[in-house]
Amino acid sequence: FHDHALMIIFLICFLVLYALNLTLTTKLTNTNISDAQEMETVWTILPAIILVLITLPSLRILYMTDEVNDPSLTIKSIGHQWYWTYEYTDYGGLIFNSYMLPPLFLEPGDLRLLDVDNRVVLPIEAPIRMMITSQDVLHSWAVPTLGLKTDAIPGRLNQTTFTATRPGVYYGQCSEICGAN
Question: Which of 1, 28, 31, 69 has its CA 20 to 30 A from that of 161?
Answer without folding.
Answer: 1
